[in-house]
Amino acid sequence: MRAAQTAQKKGLTVALIESKQIGGVCLNIGCIPTKSLLYSTSILAIAKQAGHHGVSVTQADGSLDVLQNRQRSVVGTIRDSVERSLRESGIEIIKGAARFLSGNEIDAGHEKVCAKDVIIATGSSARRLEGFATDAHILYPDDIFNLSHVPDSLLIVGAGAIGCEFAGFFNAMGSRVTVLEIQETILPLLDLDLTKRLAISFRKKGIGIVTGAALEHIEREGEHIRVLYSTGSGDVFSDILVSAGRQPNTDLLHLEKAGVKIRDGGWVDVDSQYRTSADHIWAIGDCIGRRLVAHAAEREGEIVVGILCGEPESLDYSLIPEVVYTSPEVAAVGMKESGIDDIGTYGALKGRFGSVAKAHILNEVDGIFKIIYQKDSGTIVGAHMYGYGVSELISFFSLAIHKETTLKELKKIVFPHPTLSEAIHQAVGDIS
Ligand SMILES: Cc1cc2nc3c(=O)[nH]c(=O)nc-3n(C[C@H](O)[C@H](O)[C@H](O)COP(=O)(O)OP(=O)(O)OC[C@H]3O[C@@H](n4cnc5c(N)ncnc54)[C@H](O)[C@@H]3O)c2cc1C
Question: How many CB atoms lie within 10 A of CB 128?
Fold first, then answer.
């Protein structure tokens, strides 16, 4: 969608083929509905703490139906507005499933489309559980937005960003939640110090965590599903939510007719400028399997359009922030401590959000961060945060890394008082 909008603004004639709903996974069954549901449970958490803030709330309950209606209304409003703006700008929207007939001809169901350049942005879908019997109570992320019951007990298979966000959501709604992760920690791709803190917070809320274990066996037992983990232990749950990776939506595209090569797993093979193996065919977003987040997909789209218009750019993936919208949130950008080969040349400056007044005003003192810098120059190369609202703070560090800002320069920045960002000032204030 972003590629289409950018191309149209640059004066290209654009047609957008969509088999389901405008806005893709992000708007319809991904980022937006999950964040709407999570925002609702954050209000519920505040309502439950209201007494602490001197406000009396007699009853704080969340009704799944009402939360779902709000999420649908948010999604619907945005989708209508986006669709209207696409049409008004002159982009032709073709509803249908696309498949290549040749390098520049596409069958979109009811019509054939010819284009000089084609951008493949067909996204990804939840990886299905293989080798287990199907069951109406084995759910995938897409199912959550039509769910009408709060599971009594829920096993979430996969503790990546999506699994952890749903763990927080269903815990807040009253389910007994357990997350199962094959790696040794939840959010295994993120900084260990942060993920340990999130694990502590999860456990305090009653979310069970089983790591270093895979799903071995599932068996229906009356109202429940009995689950056996690879470690030999097990449990019973009313529902299972599978959030164990994504697979590209490329199998129905007939890519071979266009000469577009795929890698193992079906991901479209592209070079650093998103060129596929076929001339004039490009691929961006989840279907290329680089960074499966909406903001990366959008930027990749802008870059391809720039190339088409003779304005080439490249994308530094290390500057793409990662955010997990749990409570507290986790956010990261740039170099990780664990990714550094020569630890001697880098340092990690650590701080706590609980050290500033705003954290106490908000009653959100559980928060830490780490700024990774080069020891000789003091240049900031990474930032990792766990705490309230860090999704909004992380972009500051994307810019700092992009501009090769040093800790000394950061020290000169005046942060508004009282804010959580003052904790950053406090941490750099200690350096000489
Ligand atoms: C539950 C969940 C929560 C998420 N939360 C976040 C978040 O908070 N932040 C974030 O950055 N990312 C998040 N993501 C990831 C984000 O949604 C994806 O990275 C993003 O949507 C990828 O965009 P895309 O354009 O590549 O593909 P998609 O958004 O998947 O769009 C692809 C579109 O192509 C259509 N399509 C597929 N095949 C065809 C065909 N043959 N013909 C025509 N149309 C076709 C599909 O119907 C779809 O509409 C989340 C994902 C999930 C599942």
Answer: 12
Å from CA of 411 to ligand 1 middle: 39
Which comes out higher in pLDDT, residue 223 or 342? Answer: 223
Half-sphere exposure (CA, 13 Å, Cβ side) for 265?
15
Domains of the chain, first to last: 2-125+247-318 (3.50.50.60), 138-244 (3.50.50.60), 328-429 (3.30.390.30)
- Protein residue closest via CA to atom 50 of ligand 1: 30
Tell me the C-alpha distance between 343 and 268, whole Å.
Answer: 35
Q: Which residues are catalytic?
A: 417
The contacts of residue 144 (CB under 8 Å, 6+ apart) are 34, 37, 166, 241
- By percentage, how much of the chain surpasses pLDDT 70? 99
Q: How many CB atoms lie within 10 A of CB 85?
A: 11
Asked if 283 and 119 count as a contact pair (C-beta separation under 8 A), the reply is: yes
Span from the CA of 74 to the centroid of ligand 1 (angstroms): 17
- Closest-CA residue to 267 (of 280, 284, 243, 281): 284
Cβ of 249 less than 6 Å from ligand 1: yes
Q: What is the pLDDT of residue 338?
A: 77
Please write the tens of the pLDDT for every residue from 49-82. Answer: 999 999 999 999 999 999 999 999 999 999 999 9
Kind of pairing, strands 208-211 and 176-181? parallel
Give me the chain's average pLDDT, please. Answer: 96
Is residue 340 very low, low, confident or very high in pLDDT (cuts 50, 70, 90)? low
**DSSP string of 294-361, one letter each residue:** HHHHHHHHHHHHHHHTT------GGGS-EEE-SSSEEEEEE--GGG-S-GGGEEEEEEEGGGSHHHHH
* Two structure tokens written together for 426: 């406090």
